[in-house]
Inverse folding.
C-alpha cells in the first residue's frame, strides 16, 4: 500500500488531493493556454528540491534560459532542479541527417543555464522523439535517482514526434517507463476542448485540470481534480490565482467538527456561523465565454491574462 504523498507546494491544492500526490505515479496537469500549467509544474519541483529531493525538468515547449529568467522573478530557489533541454533544433529545408538527442543533450542544473538560447549544432539538428527521450531518461536514472520529473509539455512531444497510428502504444510505453522508474511525474497537457480529454488523461493515474473564463469583472481561473486513482479527493472547483510568487489556491473554510463540552461545565457560547463557501460555477466549455458573475468570485481579485503586473508568463 502506498502511503507517502508528494506535496505540490500549493496548500489549497494539496488539501484537495488529501495531502498530495501518491508517489511513484504519473499525473497530468491539463488546461487551455494561459491557465498556469507550467507554473504549477515548477511549484511541484521546487517543493521537492527544497526538501532535499533530486528533481528533473524536461523542457519541450520553452527553452531553459527563458524558464530560468521567468521563474527567478518569483524568488524561488532553483539550484536543486536539473533541466534537460528537449526543445527542437532549427531544421534546414534540405535533407539534413539528424543525430540521437542523447549524444548532444545533457542534464544540467537549471541555475547554471545561460541567458541565451541554445543554438543548433553546426553538425546538424538532433532528433528528439518520445523514444529517444525515454531512453535518455532511463540512462540518466542509472547514474542518478530522481524522485520528481516534469515533462513540459507532453502535447508538443506528442504532436511533433508521434505518428497518429502509433499514439496510444507510444504514450502507454512512455507512461509505463515513468512508473517503472519510481518517480512521481507531472506532465503538462494543453487541451483545446475541455469536453474531450485525450489519451494522456486515460493513461495518467490522476488529472489536475486548470480552467479560465471571463465573468463581468475580468479573467477568472479555477482548478478541479478530474480523477485520482487510489485516493479520495475534493471534487469541487476552487479558485486559482497566479501571483508574483506563484500559484495560490484557497484552503477550505468549512468548519471543523466541534468537540462536545466537558461534563459539569456550562457550554460556551457558540460563535456566529461561518459564512458558507459558495461553489464555483462550471466554466463554459470553450473556456472563454462570458458568464454571469459567480458568487464565489469574492474569494479572489480578478487577474490579468499574464498573471498580473510583475507576474510570470504562463
Amino acid at each position: 500500500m502506498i502511503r507517502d504523498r508528494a506535496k505540490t507546494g500549493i496548500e489549497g491544492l494539496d488539501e484537495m488531493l488529501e495531502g498530495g500526490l501518491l508517489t511513484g505515479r504519473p499525473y497530468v496537469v491539463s488546461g487551455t493556454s494561459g491557465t498556469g500549467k507550467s507554473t504549477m509544474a515548477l511549484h511541484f519541483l521546487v517543493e521537492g528540491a527544497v526538501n532535499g529531493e533530486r528533481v528533473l525538468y524536461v523542457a519541450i515547449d520553452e527553452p531553459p534560459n527563458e524558464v530560468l529568467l521567468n521563474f527567478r522573478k518569483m524568488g524561488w530557489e532553483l539550484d536543486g532542479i536539473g533541466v534537460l533541454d528537449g526543445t527542437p533544433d532549427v531544421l534546414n529545408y534540405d535533407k539534413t541527417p539528424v543525430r540521437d538527442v542523447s549524444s548532444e543533450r545533457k542534464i544540467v542544473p537549471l541555475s547554471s543555464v545561460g541567458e541565451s538560447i541554445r543554438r543548433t549544432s553546426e553538425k546538424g539538428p538532433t532528433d528528439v522523439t518520445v523514444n529517444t527521450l525515454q531512453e535518455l531518461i532511463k540512462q540518466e536514472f542509472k547514474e542518478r535517482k530522481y524522485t520528481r520529473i516534469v515533462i513540459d509539455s507532453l502535447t508538443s512531444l506528442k504532436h511533433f514526434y508521434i505518428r497518429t497510428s502509433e499514439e496510444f502504444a507510444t504514450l502507454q510505453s512512455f507512461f509505463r517507463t515513468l512508473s517503472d522508474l519510481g518517480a512521481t511525474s507531472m506532465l503538462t497537457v494543453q487541451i483545446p476542448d475541455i469536453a474531450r480529454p485525450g489519451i494522456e488523461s486515460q493513461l495518467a493515474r490522476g488529472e489536475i485540470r486548470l480552467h479560465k473564463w471571463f465573468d463581468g469583472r475580468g479573467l477568472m481561473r479555477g482548478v478541479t481534480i478530474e480523477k485520482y486513482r487510489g485516493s479520495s479527493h475534493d471534487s469541487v472547483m476552487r479558485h486559482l490565482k497566479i501571483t508574483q510568487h506563484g500559484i495560490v489556491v484557497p484552503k477550505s473554510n468549512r468548519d471543523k467538527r466541534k468537540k462536545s463540552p466537558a461534563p459539569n461545565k456550562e457550554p460556551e457560547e457558540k460563535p456566529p456561523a461561518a459564512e458558507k463557501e459558495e461553489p464555483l460555477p462550471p466554466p463554459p466549455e470553450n473556456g472563454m465565454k462570458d458568464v454571469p458573475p459567480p458568487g464565489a468570485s469574492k474569494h479572489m481579485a480578478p487577474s490579468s491574462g499574464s498573471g498580473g503586473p510583475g507576474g510570470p508568463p504562463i
Notes: Helices lie at 11-16, 37-50, 64-72, 130-143, 154-161, 167-181, 199-203.
